[in-house]
Each structure stands twice: as C-alpha cells, then as structure tokens.
Specification:
By secondary structure, this protein is α+β, with helices and mostly antiparallel strands. 50% of the residues lie in helices and 12% in strands. It is built from 17 helices and 13 strands. A five-stranded mixed β-sheet has the order 2-3-9-6-4.
Length: 486
C-alpha cells in the first residue's frame, strides 16, 4: 500500500505569517553560560549595540545568561512595545531589584498597579499649572546661573559645562519637587558629589551577570555604600522639613506646594496611597532624574548649536525678538514660546538622546515584530538607532532643527515620530514639561546675554559619548563673552 506524500497547507488568505524564533536570528558569538554579557563594554554599550545592528541587521539576537534577547531598532516596533506597557512589557527585573536595593524604588522602577498608583501623584507635580506657579523660583535660579557665568566671562575662564548645568538642574528640581532652596550654584553642596556617584554604580550593577555584592563587597561597593548613606540622610532631611511645613500650615494638606508635600499629605490621609519607602524612593528618583537627564541634554544641545553657527544665530534672533529689553523670559508663557529653541532641543535629543537604550522584558508570552517572546523574554530597544534610520530621510544624521518646525508632514513627520527621548505610550516621562522649560530658560539666557565663544572638550573635536545609565558628553568646556545689549 503506497503512502501519499504530505502536501504543505498554505496559510489562509489574510492570516498572519508564522512566528519566528528569536534563537534563530544572527548575532555576535556568545560564550557558554553567560552568553554575551561579559562582552559588554558598559561605558560604550550603546555604540556597541548600534555597531552590532550594522553588522547583523536591524533585528538581531543577544544571549543574556540563559535567555535570548530580541534587539530591535525599528521605530514602529519600539513604539508598539511602549504602548503595551505596563501590561505586556516592563523594565527588566534586575533594574527594579538594583534600584530597590538603593532605596530609590519609586515611579521610575515601579510596575503594574504599583506604578499606576504612584504616577497619579507624581504627574500632578509636573503639570503645566504647577510649573506656572513655580516659575518665579525657576527665574531666580536661572538668574543665579547667569551671574556665575557672567563672572566667568569677565575673567575669561572656561566653564566646566556639565558640572555647572548639573548644579542648576539640582537646584531647580529640589525647589520644585521638595520646596528646598539648595543653591548649589553659589556654593558646592555635598549632596551633589554623592548623587554623581549613583548613576554609574546603578548602571554597573544592573549589567552584572550576577549580584556579586550580595556576597563580596569590593572597594567600589563600600565607597558606593558611603555615598548612599549621605544621600539618604539628605532625603530624610527633605521629608522632615516637608512634614514640618504641613504641621505648621495645615492648609498645605489641601493645597500642597510641591511634590513631597503632596505625597506626604496623601500618605497621611490614606496609608494605602504611598508607603514611607515609596515616598523616600520617589524623592531619590526625582533627584537623580532631574540632575542628569536635563543637564546632559543641555550639554549636547549647546555643543551642537556651537558647531552649527547658523542655527545658533537663529536662536539668538528669536530670543532677541521675544524678550525685547529683558535679560530672561519675564513670564511662564514667554518661556513656553521660543519655538526655535524647542526645535533645536528636539533635534539634539534625536541625535544625542541621554537614553539611547531601553531594556524591557515580557510580562506574558507575546509576539512582536513577527517573533514569539516567552514570559520573561528580554527586548532591547535601540532608541537612537531607530531615530537615525536612513529610510526616514537622506540627511537623517545631520543636525537640522528646521525639521521640527513649520507643520512638518510626510517624511519629516515620520522622523519626529521615530525620536522618543521621553519614551512613549502610558509611561511617557512625567518630567518632560519641566525638562523642556529648564532648557528653554538656559538657552534663552545664554542667547540673550552672552556670545558663545567655545563649546567642546580640551583639544577640540567632538566630545566622546559615555554611558553611565544616561549618555553624556565627556569633558565639555564652555567659554563666553558678554553681549553688549542696546
């Protein structure tokens, strides 16, 4: 009796193609047990992953311990994953674990219902209405920075740009979120030094193959512990001061003046709103996020504008026309305008995003980009690579702020959508309005009051990129001269 050969059955018309397996993708050669983990060059990890995308394609595989990670650099795929947070996708669990160990567990690292509960409070502190009430304090901090930079200009000194900008962002963040005027611009504050040590160590631990520090404390870990003690002392001080304000002025419970007062009032009114650990964690989260991300973006934007003098002159012309005889935007509404500055900042964030990588994992079995990903499967998103896809525009690698102005359509609109510096979907960064406002204040202050003489590292050339949780320019110095205003 003969056996008829099997005939492959074609998929029904309109049916999705069968899913592929992540393990079948090409990628860099992996090592036994640890996979590709020990190959990671952490300070240059974003460049390394982008180079692998050039070698293996826009979608490739990395082995992370026992799991295959799907690496994607397609903007539509990344946007789809971000829209499905926090239900289908979450941050990788080691991120939450390391941040929780540091005492910084807040809205950044929270997931699911935990995140939804915390986000409502945190969002209210950064909405435009609250920022408008805070504007006089923001103006005062910017005036202090202008005074310091004017002194440096008169002495002909080079300004350590990142250090100066980080002091500014810390002062703004502590004032807005905690009601505290640190004034690190006028005099160095110990908190600044301790905060500066946190991001590099968090990034290092998140990318370790296993948590060795649970068993052996190296000198770098003991040093980190000392810095962490001081940071937590500062956080407890902020909380004590806010509690005292609520006690002295009970009306603040109904109309809190800052994020910390709002969190404490909610905590006291309903113990389920936030735990004491979550209050402290969100204080630390806001401190860290407010310092690094905005300062680094400003540094990149200033370097790009300095190297594109026509774009800088366009910013100067806009600011001169908008401010008239004022040295700074006189009102919140005046600062929110300045479209050319906003376009320049958006273009800087597209080319030099402070978060060029995003590490996610699946909460449940799912399919993305045609690949089946099991529960716990990692998804690595190359955020900058997606925004620099040459399919979007021939000049995609060029700094051209004009692509963000004039009601962009077609390919320009696609370029804008591919850039996601604040994330996308439900977990869009709650501090984005504050970040943009700070950047407009600093750049308008510079354009109105100073000539930009030099921005760059010693020896000239482009600043090196370095990744330590955020991506920052190495060794940026700035020289200014005072403008003669009429």
């Amino acid at each position: 009796m003969s056996t008829l050969p099997e005939v492959p059955v074609a998929p029904a018309e309109g049916a999705p193609p069968p899913a592929r397996c992540v393990a079948d993708l090409s990628g860099p050669r992996r090592w036994p047990v640890v996979g590709n983990l020990l190959q990671f060059d952490l300070p240059n990890l974003h460049r390394q992953m982008e180079d692998w995308a050039d070698a293996y394609g826009p979608t490739y595989r990395l082995r992370v311990g026992p799991r295959d990670a799907l690496v994607v650099s397609d903007a539509e795929t990344i946007a789809a994953a971000l829209r499905d947070r926090p239900d289908t996708w979450r941050r990788m669990r080691p991120i939450e674990a390391v941040i929780r160990e540091s005492g910084g567990h807040g809205v950044f690292s929270a997931e699911g219902d935990d995140w939804r509960r915390q986000r409502r409070l945190v969002m209210s502190a950064f909405d435009p209405a609250h920022l408008k009430r805070f504007y006089p304090s923001l103006l005062r901090v910017t005036e202090r920075l202008m005074t310091r930079w004017r002194e440096a200009a008169r002495r002909g000194e080079a300004i350590d740009l990142q250090a100066s900008l980080m002091r500014y962002t810390v002062d703004v963040t502590t004032g807005l979120a905690f009601g505290v005027d640190l004034n690190t611009i006028a005099a160095a504050h110990p908190l600044q030094e301790h905060l500066d040590k946190m991001f590099p160590m968090l990034f290092r631990r998140i990318n370790m193959p296993f948590p060795y520090w649970h068993y052996v404390r190296l000198p770098i870990d003991r040093d980190y512990d000392r810095h962490l003690v001081h940071v937590h002392e500062a956080v407890r001080g902020f909380v004590r001061a806010a509690r005292q304000r609520l006690q002295d002025e009970p009306m603040r419970r109904e109309q809190p003046a800052d994020l910390l007062e709002a969190m404490l009032a909610a905590r006291d009114a309903d113990g389920s709103a936030l735990t004491e650990e979550e209050v402290a964690g969100n204080v630390l989260t806001v401190l860290l996020a407010g310092e690094d991300t905005t300062a680094n973006t400003l540094g990149w934007a200033l370097w790009l504008l300095h190297t594109h003098r026509g774009d800088w002159q366009a910013v100067v012309a806009e600011v001169d026309a908008a401010l008239g005889g004022e040295p700074l935007p006189p009102s919140f509404d005046a600062a929110r305008g300045l479209d050319r500055i906003e376009a320049s900042v958006n273009e800087a964030m597209r080319l030099k995003p402070v978060a060029p990588l995003l590490f996610l994992e699946a909460n449940r079995p799912t399919r993305i980009a045609g690949f089946d990903v099991p529960r716990g499967g990692p998804l690595f998103c190359l955020m900058r690579k997606a925004a620099l896809d040459r399919k979007l525009a021939d000049d995609i690698a060029d700094f051209r702020p004009g692509r963000w102005q004039g009601g962009a359509e077609g390919r320009e609109r696609g370029t804008q959508k591919a850039s996601m510096p604040f994330g996308a979907g439900p977990r869009l960064c709650p501090g984005r309005y504050l970040a943009l406002l700070e950047m407009k204040m600093v750049l308008s202050m510079l354009a109105r009051n100073f000539e930009l003489i030099e921005v760059g590292p010693d020896g000239g050339g482009a600043p090196r990129e370095r990744l330590a949780f955020t991506m920052f320019p190495v060794g940026l110095k700035m020289r200014l001269a005072e403008r003669q205003l009429h």
